[in-house]
């Protein structure tokens, strides 16, 4: 990334589109196609949009935030006992400053918690040491945490599937084209807490500039703001301010690769200048580990060739984890 992007200004005029996805469930193909068209425009531009009409009850979103706050409010000793170093499949607590998303920058001013698909040690995929497969770590002192997070995880998995049907339509494909990808997906829920930015450390970030390396990221943020999306046209940052009742959805590097770089995986970062504690809950929906990601047919013009060889979801993820920091 060019150093200029670190100092680039806030972009006041540009904004991200709001896409109502409710019509993806419509029986009218024209209404479904209209959502596909809106998704296509967003994906070709920055690969970032606000998702409205998702149908997930506000009560579940509120409950997920309440449990997230309760988790990070636990005493340090209790959080340390849940540390992800105790997990073979990247689950559990990550301490403040435990990740540096922007190479060469200061460690991120955030703490996190990872939750994945719950699989017992006896599951053949776990026994075989498959990537990110295994049991979660659940905090014993928060009785509402596990049921709430499981319900939230299930709801977001459903939304991930819905959005992949929309992405298929956006690529002029039948809407069930990615059903194989959506079968038994490798999804990860990440709870994040960003303390207020420190005025005496202007270079410090809540989350340093990065792209997500998977498929779809579906982010619920609280009302503090702080997420910024890079705008190459102006060499500035669009502030993705929260819009109540919506998720911010963005595409990761795997979808860029899958579409021969037609769809975009865009640099983003977090700086919590609100003066308050910020909480966010990104859900990374990456699909079935055995699914082969190869250049989508409708993403090749006449005479064009795929830029990348075919790769399984699992191999792509593993190589990105190796190249960057585990997240
Ligand atoms: O907290 C946010 O708003 C964004 C988090 C993020 O970009 C990530 O976890 O990849
Ligand atoms: Fe991200």
UniProtKB/TrEMBL annotation:
Q: Report the GO molecular function annotations.
A: 2-oxoglutarate oxygenase/decarboxylase (ethylene-forming) activity; metal ion binding
**Is Secreted one of the keywords UniProt gives this record?**
no
For the Fe2OG dioxygenase domain, which residue ranges apply?
A: 185-287
Q: Which PANTHER family match?
A: 2-OXOGLUTARATE (2OG) AND FE(II)-DEPENDENT OXYGENASE SUPERFAMILY PROTEIN-RELATED
**This protein's name:** 2-oxoglutarate-dependent ethylene/succinate-forming enzyme
Which reaction is this enzyme known to catalyze? 2-oxoglutarate + O2 + 2 H(+) = ethene + 3 CO2 + H2O; L-arginine + 2-oxoglutarate + O2 = guanidine + L-glutamate 5-semialdehyde + succinate + CO2
Q: What class of enzyme is it?
A: oxidoreductase
Keywords, A to Z?
Ethylene biosynthesis, Iron, Metal-binding, Oxidoreductase
List, alphabetically, the PROSITE patterns matched.
FE2OG_OXY
Q: Which cofactor does it need?
A: Fe(2+)
Write down the Pfam families for this protein, in alphabetical order. Answer: 2OG-FeII_Oxy, DIOX_N
Species of the source: Pacificitalea manganoxidans
GO biological-process terms attached to the record? ethylene biosynthetic process
Pathway(s) where this gene product acts: Alkene biosynthesis; ethylene biosynthesis via 2-oxoglutarate
Question: Can the keyword Ubl conjugation be found in this entry's annotation?
Answer: no
Q: Which InterPro entries match?
A: DIOX_N (IPR026992), IPNS-like_FE2OG_OXY (IPR044861), IPNS-like_sf (IPR027443), Iron_ascorbate_oxido_reductase (IPR050231), Oxoglu/Fe-dep_dioxygenase_dom (IPR005123)
**Family that this chain belongs to:** Belongs to the iron/ascorbate-dependent oxidoreductase family.
What EC number(s) are associated with this protein in UniProt? 1.13.12.19, 1.14.20.7
